[in-house]
Every structure is written in C-alpha cells, then in structure tokens.
Amino acid sequence: MTSADQEEPGRRGAKFLRAxxxxxxxxxxxxxxxxxxxxxxxxxxxTVVRRFEVAMPNxxxxxxxxxxxxxxxxxxxxxxxVERAIRVVDLLGAEHPDLIxxxxxxxxxxxxxxxxxxxxxxxxxxPLGAFMVIGNHDLLDDGDRVRAMATxxxxxxxxxxxxxxxxxxxxxxHVGSETEVASPLVLAGIDWDKSVEALATRVERIRxxxxxxxxxxxxxxFLPASRVGIPLTLAGHTHGGQVAKKGRPGVNLxxxxxxxxxxxxxxxxxxxxxxxxxxxxxxxxxxxxxVVILECRRGEQxxxxxxxxx
Length: 310
Prior knowledge:
Elements: H1 9-33, H2 37-44, E1 48-56, E2 66-71, H3 82-93, E3 99-102, H4 115-123, E4 130-132, H5 138-141, H6 143-153, E5 156-157, E6 161-165, E7 185-189, H7 196-206, E8 213-215, H8 222-227, E9 232-235, E10 244-245, E11 248-252, E12 262-266, E13 269-273, E14 290-298, E15 302-309
Parallel strand pairs: 1-14, 2-3, 3-4, 4-5, 7-8, 8-9, 9-13
Antiparallel strand pairs: 1-15, 2-14, 6-7, 10-11, 12-13
Helix pairs in contact: 3-4, 4-6
C-alpha cells in the first residue's frame, strides 16, 4: 500500500485521535446538549429495506437474476451497539440474498467487540458467501485486526483482488440458465483510498480479471471502474449526507461528494452508492439508514425500484 492517501500504521494514531475528538464533540457533546434527546430519537429511527431491479447491457447473462444484499457504513460503536448491528444484518438476511456485499466502515473508532457482527453476516447463509472491503474508519484503530476478525468469521475481505464465484447446477434456479452454470461470477474489491488517481491505480490491479462487480468504499472508484467497463460498482462512505431534501436524496449535506447517494451511470457502467446503516452523529433527516437488495439483469441500462419500506 504505497499511496499517500492510504492510511499507514505510523499515521493511524493521529488520525484516530482527531476522529475521537470529532466523536466527542459531534456525537457525545451534541447529545448531552439536548439532554440525551438526540440519541433517544435516533435509536428509534428504523432501517429501511430498498429493492431494485438493475439492468445493465454488459451484465453476464449466466448471472441474470442474481440478488445482491448490499449494505455499508455500519460504524459499530456508541451509536451502533452490537445488538442493533445484528438486527440490521438480520433485516438483510430476511430478504434471502444470493450474495452479501459490505462496502466498508464496519467500525467507527475502536474495533473491540465487532466480531459477532461479522459472524452474523456469515450466519445468514447466503449461498455465494459474504464479502467486504475496508473503509477509512476501519483503519483508524487497527485495520489488520478488522481484516483478521472478518476473515476468522468467514467473511472474505477483498484487498485489491478478485475472486471467481461458481455455483452448483440447480443451486440458484432463479439465476441464469443451466447451460451457462460453468461461467464464474468475477467479484473484485479494492482498499480505501481518497483520490481518483490512487483509486485508479487500485482498479488497474484488478482489471485484467474482467470483474462484473467492484466493491469499493469510496464512490470515486466508479470513475476508473467505468473507464475499464466494469458493469456494476457498489460503494458507500458518504452516508448520503445524513440530511437530504425530501424526495431528492441526491440533494444532501454530502457537498464534498459529487457521487453521494443512489444510482449513477457512465457509458455502460452503473454505480450504486448506499447511504449506509450507521451514522457519524445521531441525526438522519429524509435520509433513513438502509439495506439494499439489487436484482441484477442483462438488458438495456435502467433501474426500477421494486418497492421501499422496512
């Protein structure tokens, strides 16, 4: 990991300390000023389930109908204790996805105690497995330990790499056709980085495997991913600003992010940015936490929301 934008062990202490102070001011301090009302109301806000049919012209026909369970930005910690985190995972499991994809920031600050959440992900029993990439918050305390806990639990962490996923005949009758079962699904994942240039370097490391799906914490990865023709990129990081305009999730407080929430298209490639399940501070307005089911189809580029709620 040579990029200047990548978190390094020697810098982690200072970044962790700054993040800790932000947490004390924006989360603990703000909550105390309201006599605890912010955190109480936040704890009552539901996580919604959103379901989309996503058609892509370059999606592999052998995997037409694949159902991906996507979530991100759990931020395990004060605002997301283990019991609540497991309830979020179970909400996704109730949708019976074929594959689980988590796009970073499982922890907020400290990673102690997060392993049961990884175990819950695996416990859903998704036929094709559970996969994740690392986010910037995962690196604040001990990124290697987060990776180790996920791996020990059975979650596959993709660090600038790809994996070929096969299925047994008849195992997913709603996906593809029996004559094309031998064709693998190629899934890629890249580590956290801040700049488009650094992310492009990471995408170059996986492009020769010709992946159909890219997992990345930073949605900026979509720019290089679309240049090399990856059909679907899944990302998080922005939280959708946590405060958005009613009916227009793309108009939000994530002003530093051009790709902040929902679907984006570039040539034949599609990006989905989830607003996440956790929070930086105990407030979400017109931007509810979400878990998402993406039903992937081969066809003319379009997105249709099947229904919403939770």
